[in-house]
Amino acid sequence: MSADNPLYIIPARGGSKGIPRKNIKPLGGRPLLAWTVEAALKDLGPDGDRRRVVLSTDDAEIAATGRDLGLDVEYMRPAALATDTAGSREVILDVMDWADARGMVYDSVVLLQPTSPFRTASDIAAARRLYSRGDTDMVVTVCESAANPYYNLFEVTPEGMLRVCKGDGLITRRQDAPAVWEYNGAVYVICPESIRAMALGAFPRRVPCEMPRERSIDLDTPADWMIAETMAAALQEL
Directed axis angle between helix 60-68 and helix 32-44, to 10°? Predict the structure, then answer.
């Protein structure tokens, strides 16, 4: 399976309730969107066709920001796919249909959410290399979870008591528990045929690509943004 001709999709709709206008809100002195566009273009390479990096937005200001950052922004997301209830799969399929109608040939879809600003071009490249190794529906970046169902995650029994989610509950040290992983939202490398056939959550062949926790911040709340600002300032000092 090849990932030599990726179609990058950066989803950035105008509406955002947790952090208003977050996709163009300045982080570290530049729009949040800039962090992801820069990583995508670096992975694409200087000789790559920039039409392959598709900004999916319904918002004129976000589209203008994308153009300022070097994207063509020929595609605009339909309003019906810019609601709070619109799913990622539908958004991806609409961009794929648009690319297909223009004769673009691609062997993978690379979904890059702007809310993961500290993902790097190297992280994207690592996920694409894993995708190229074999038959898979999706490679997804993950980080080791702080909460572990064998150690410190519990469910309530019918009697109202706590019991550990997995295992016998006798593990007393975190390092003795099996490692568990969570999606960090940074990079998804998706097989086009797979996403046309089924929802992302139904993929039976999902390959993890590990990223360190310090680059795995996913911006959802104002508190997340405060942490990200501290990290962005630290990066500027390096």
Answer: 50
